[in-house]
Amino acid sequence: MTRRKTKNRTGLSRIEGIQPHDAWVGFICLNCGTLNNVNIGNTLIEPKLAYDNYKWNCSKCEYVHSKDSDLPFVHWEEDFRLAKSIKAQRFWEAFFRIATENPEAYWKQCNACGRILPFAAFSRHSGWGPLERQMECRSCKGAINAVLNPKRTKQQLHESSVRRRIADLLVEGENEKIDIKDLFKRFDSKCFKTHIKLDIKNRDSYQIDHILPSKWLYPLKKENSCLLSSEANESKKGKWPSEFYKNNELIELAKITGADLFLISSQVPVVNTNINVNRCVERYLRVRENSHLPKRIKELKKILIDYDLVSKLSPENKKLLGLK
Ligand SMILES: [Zn+2]
Ligand SMILES: [Zn+2]
Question: Other C-beta atoms within 10 Å of 86: how many?
C-alpha cells in the first residue's frame, strides 16, 4: 500500500488511495487459519453469486476457497471432504453466506489509520456507501473529535455551561415547536451542510440546528431552525452561524428560512435584545432548581450585565436583583 498523505483541517493525515466507501469481506483460511480480507468494491455481494463465482485465495498458504475445492480438514472422512460431495457443497454455500449475507459481516478500511476492521468498528453514516458507515474507524474518530473540540479547562467549561444553561432557561418560554415535516420539506430532506439525504424516521441521524444560538438569547423558531445531520450539528452546536457556514451557505440559509442575513453573517456574536427580558427573568426565577437561589441570582446578574440588558429591566426587577 502506498501511503501518500494529505492534510485536512483536523490536522490528521488521511491515507490517499483508500476508497472510503468500499466494502471488504473477511474469512479465516480453512487450511492455515489466517485472516484474509478481500476488497469487493462498493456493491455488496449476493451469497448465491459468491458461491457460484468466487475464488478467494489465502494470502499465506494460497489455498483456494471456492466450491470447486476439496475441504482441507484432515480429520474429516474422505467422503465429507470431496468438493463434489453434497456435504462439501453445503459447507461452501454456508461459507460464502456467512461472509456476505448481512451488512454486519462485512469489513471496511479506515482511511485515517489504514486498518481493515469489522463493520461495527465504524459509526453509522446514512447515505455513505453500501455499508452506510463513516470513513474513519471509531478510534480515529475519537482522535479527530479531540482535535475539532479541544478540551477546555475545567473552569472555562464550567463557566460556559452555566452561561448556556441560564441562557437556555431565559429563552425557554419563547421557543416554538418546530414542525419537523415542514423542516424536511424546506431543506429537501438533506443536511444543509453536507447535503447527505436524511431519513425523517431515523431520529438519531438528524438534528435541528438553532442557527442563532440560545447562548446569545435567540429562541428556537421556524426562521431560526436548520436541518443538519447529527454529525454536522455536533460541530456546529453553539457556534455563531458565520463561524460554521460559508458565505454562499449563509445566503442560501437566509433564503430558505427568512433569517436576517446581516445578523447571521456578522463576524461577532450579537446578543438578542429583542426578547422580553422581564418575562424571561421572572420565568427564570420561578424555575425550580437544586442550586441555591443567591448563587443563581448572582449568575443571572452577571449575564444581564455582560449582555448589556440591565436597562431593559423594569424598576421592580432591577430592585429585586439589586441592580441600579
Ligand atoms: Zn491459508
Ligand atoms: Zn482508524
Answer: 10
Compute CA distances 265 → 51, 228, 240, whole Å: 58, 19, 9
Nearest-ligand number for the alpha carbon of 14? 2
How far is CA 123 from each of CA 48, 118, 205, 307, rounded to the nearest angstrom? 28, 11, 11, 40
Residue 133 CA to ligand 2 centre (angstroms):
13
Residues 6+ apart with CB under 8 A from 183: 208, 225, 227
Q: Whole-angstrom Cα distance, residue 232 to residue 192?
A: 9
Contact of 85 with 79, CB cutoff 8 Å: yes
The ranges assigned to domains in the chain are: 5-144, 154-264, 277-321
Q: What cell does 270 get?
A: 450579537
Please name the residues in contact with 201: beta carbons below 8 A apart, sequence gap of 6 or more: none
Residue-level length of the chain:
324
What's the pLDDT tens digit per position in 228-275? 999 999 989 889 999 999 999 999 999 999 999 999 999 888 899 888
Contact 166, 160 (CB under 8 A): no
Considering only CA atoms, which of 224, 212, 215 is closest in space to residue 170? 215
The residue among 197, 41, 189 whose CA lies nearest residue 128 is 197
- Phi then psi dihedrals of residue 91, to 5 deg: -60, -50
The alpha carbon of 141 and the centre of ligand 2 are apart by a number of angstroms equal to: 7
The bound ligand whose nearest atom lies closest to the alpha carbon of 33 is 1
CA distance 77 to 67: 18
pTM: 0.52
**CB within 5 A of ion ligand 2: which residues?**
110, 112-113, 137, 140
